[in-house]
Fold Thiazole synthase.
Amino acid sequence: MTPLTIADKTFNSRLFTGTGKFSSGQQMEEALLASGSELVTVALKRVDVQNEQDDILSHLGHPQFNLLPNTSGVRNAKEAVFAAQLAREALETNWLKLEIHPDPKYLLPDPIETLKAAEELVKLGFVVLPYIHADPVLCKRLEEVGVAAVMPLGSPIGSNNGLQTRAFLEIIIQQSKVPVVVDAGIGAPSHAAEAMELGADAVLVNTAIAVSQQPVQMAKAFKMAVEAGRMAYEAKLAPVGVTAHASSPLTAFLDEL
């Protein structure tokens, strides 16, 4: 499996992970280590950066983990830029997962505010990875303002409904000049493998691992699924047909009778 480069970092794992919904910090740490993930997103609003014993941050001190602060909870571009600056100061990283979803019921991203915030954050020197609808036009606009990757949703956050936006993801992947990370809605390892087979550069998974009955085992399953999906993509899948094609001659052996 080829490594993935985003901005100035190279990742051997194409499985990115979240830190929400785990029953404990210890369980989160064990699952993330089992996943092999090298990029871990964390909501700034959920951590106490002044507390060395913070239940999330105290478990993320492993050298393989690169932290990706996110702006979950903000409602517009102005709040997102403010949160990003706080995150950069607190966590000493200019990487940012930009999330703006004003509707608390469906948590769908606001495309207008996201584009506005991304443009300003890039100018301020941030490495911006925006969470967005699977909108090919918006992805190109974000690419033009200088984001480091795009993160289109497969289906609503935490829904575990898989790639409901598959047709649009295919267009995004085909057109994109920056890495495409499928985020949200990936509820099973097979969903992750499907995204990777389509040609996604990575996937981000949180809920499906955190709420499973055995998070460590599920994390391993996602790790294997992402690797399998990427290997299949690189090996090139066989064409799909509507009629049967025998894998060996049907009648040749009869000619010898």
Observations:
- Residues 215-235 form the longest helix (21 residues).
- The domain at 4-238 is CATH 3.20.20.70 (TIM Barrel).
- The longest strand covers residues 127-132.
- The two ends are 48 Å apart (CA to CA).
